[in-house]
Amino acid sequence: MPVRLRGARYCCDRLRRRLNTALLAGVALCAVATQTLAEQELVQAVRSRQVELQYRLVDASPEAQVELWYTRDRGTSWQRWGTHKDHDRPIVFEAPAEGLYGFTLIVNDKGVFSAPPPTAHAQPQRRVFIDYTPPLVQWDSVEPVEAFASRRAVQLRWTAHDANLSSRPVSLSYLCSIDQSWCVIEEELPNSGQYDWTVPAHVAGQITLKLAVRDLGGHVVERLHGPVPIDRWVAKGIPLPETSTRPTGPHGSTATSRPAQPTTNPAGLKFLANADRQKVEQLWSRGSWHAGRN
After folding, report:
1. What's the pTM?
2. pLDDT tens digit string along 181-198?
3. What is the structure's pLDDT at 237?
4. Do the bridges between strand 182-189 and strand 165-176 make them parallel or antiparallel, or are there none, so unpaired?
5. pLDDT of 76 strictly over 60
6. I need a surface site. Which of 7, 8, 196, 271 has the fewest CB within 10 A?
7. Is residue 74 exposed (0-12), middle (13-18) or buried (19+ Cβ within 10 Å)?
8. Does 104 map to a domain?
9. What domain range is 182 assigned to?
10. Number of domains making up the chain
11. What is the CATH number of the domain that holds 168?
């Protein structure tokens, strides 16, 4: 569907028979700072291959024609698109490719022109950045570090491709299963494909991660990952004892009737007793971890 864009207002001074132009405000479109442009200027961005240039003629004859000129190299060279005679309809310009376009309209009213054809390095009346292809985005991996229970660090990896990405197009956020509200991890990240996140200490249960990538045309592509079991990662970080090698009784029971107690290895690490280990494994299999609860 073409994007409507108001072009220019054209007035005719009948006394001097000279046509003047004044630019009208455009419709509300996404304005982005195209940091890849040398001018570092604000241009209007559209997410469609077709652009409607709307204009209005004032005090012009019914025979007046409107010429459309466009440039794709910031005014270094210009191409004539053609003429438009149906003043009740907008000009529909179909972009041959994505990128920055400059447009200029010239009125020809019975041989009287509003302006000469644009020459090299002439400034356009309107600049538009056309980007009709959304980015390709995917999660690659979400992996906790080995000592997650103490460090709470997670390695986030992703892939994002687009010909028109800004220098910092990536945003990361998470949704906790407890409070069900999105929280920002980081915004305006470079598309490096990696980010090491330290999970806040108050975050527990399960979380869903969101990767959002925005291009210069205004497309925003979001990808979700999860739910991720934070509590299970914590449980994995607690050392568990190896299989007991103590002698057993005739029916497979342990030779001693004393209650299982926490043991300590020579290195001083405190392990869980067998009964506590079974409880941990049961909670772990249910996808949750609640130490100290019955």
Report:
1. 0.61
2. 899 999 999 999 999 999
3. 56
4. antiparallel
5. yes
6. 196
7. middle
8. yes
9. 136-234
10. 3
11. 2.60.40.10
